[in-house]
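Researcher: Good morning. I'm working through a list of sequences from a screen, and I'd like to move beyond sequence-only analysis. For each chain I'm collecting a predicted structure so we can compare shapes side by side. This is the next one on the list. No need for commentary yet; just the structure.
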Amino acid sequence: MQLYDECRDCLYNSQLKKVTSMHGEGEKLQSFKEAARALCDGAPGRSCAPLLMRGIDGVHRGIFGGIIDYSREKHTFNQALLSLEDEIFDRILRAPDPLKEGIKYAMAANYIDYARLADLNEDSIAQVIAAAERSSVDDGVYARFISKLSRAKTLVYLHDNCGEIVLDKLLIRTIKRIYPRVKVISVVRGGPIINDVTREDADEVGLGKYALVIDNGTAIPGTYLPEVNALTRAFIKNADVIISKGLGNLETLYGELNGAFYMFMCKCQHIAERFGKQLWQTAFVDD
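Model: Good morning. Structure tokens for this chain:
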């Protein structure tokens, strides 16, 4: 997708806030500000937000000698959502349509995004629950999703953020209860970037009990097909159903795949306008 000015400013401001909290004021922070601002201002419009975020993280590595570290936030949200797992799964199974209910929770969980919201804390989980309760699922997209699932043998699930992955797991559990023959391949990031899901996060939340977990070989907050590893590319190419979670995957994949399903929250004005939604509304679309 196109790189909008909104993306440049959003990523710069959110990461500056995080880096300032990590290191405090000083010459290195000033160097980071200048280099990150120049990178954001100079990024070509044909780029996309996930590639710009990788660049910002690279600036941080060059100045401070390591990644912009979200490990504490990731663990906090993973554990917080795990503590609610049984309660939420019970809600899903008691719903008139458990699969549709599982989609609602998975979409709403995309709220947990430190690239967009620098001030997230455990109280934000209440926002996720409320968003799930008011979400709706497009009937046409849902019908096409069920049609594909009913014939599918493989489903590739492209994950996004920490915490969110617990509700992704509940959707996968729901799918496997209804369509037990479907093999699920869960694709996570190949290295730490913002609060995106890695193998370590997948292990922490027990995702491997319900899906084959692989990483895509890249530390990009999205699924950038020119750089993902051969295994990920092969699974995507041969999948009967593809679920793409979150804005990073949407921005790197939309229009590149045939018939994928995208679940996300419209956290950006240009995304909301493109898909005919309100800001902070959930979305379930296909291409």
